[in-house]
Amino acid sequence: xxxxxxxxxxxxxxxxxxxxxxxxxxxxxxxxxxxxxxxxxxxxxxxxxxxxxxxxxxxxxxxxxxxxxxxxxxxxxxxxxxxxxxxxxxxxxxxxxxxxxxxxxxxxxxxxxxxxxxxxxxxxxxxxxxxxxxxxxxxxxxxxxxxxxxxxxxxxxxxxxxxxxxxxxxxxxxxx
Length: 176
Hints:
67% helix, CMD-like, AhpD_core
């Protein structure tokens, strides 16, 4: 059962009311996470800005979804994990690669290196080495794509931690 209530443009106040009203007018509805984030205009606004910014990332979406799967397995947010597995499938990522991402790796050495970096960013960023970054460059990743890994991890930490705090689970959501 959710710990925090969903808000609507009618029940939210201040900046959250405006943000929700805009989202509802453009999309018809908002998901449980966004409606619940509206309790904090700072969190909702920050999430929306980071989410939009990461939409312009240079890291391939099929890779970022596998990174997200690995991070959410580590973090334990079932709602986020389900969403990222669904997104990976929609992008054509096969079931074997989804299972490898759940295990924190990939059959492709370049993608495995990106996932390993992402998990290190999440767990222990101070331990990242020059050799890891050099290896990513040797796999063909630009500095921008490497930097995008931090953004993907940060977005996943925000959404996963929020959903876990709010008690949002695959069983508790009312809309996507």
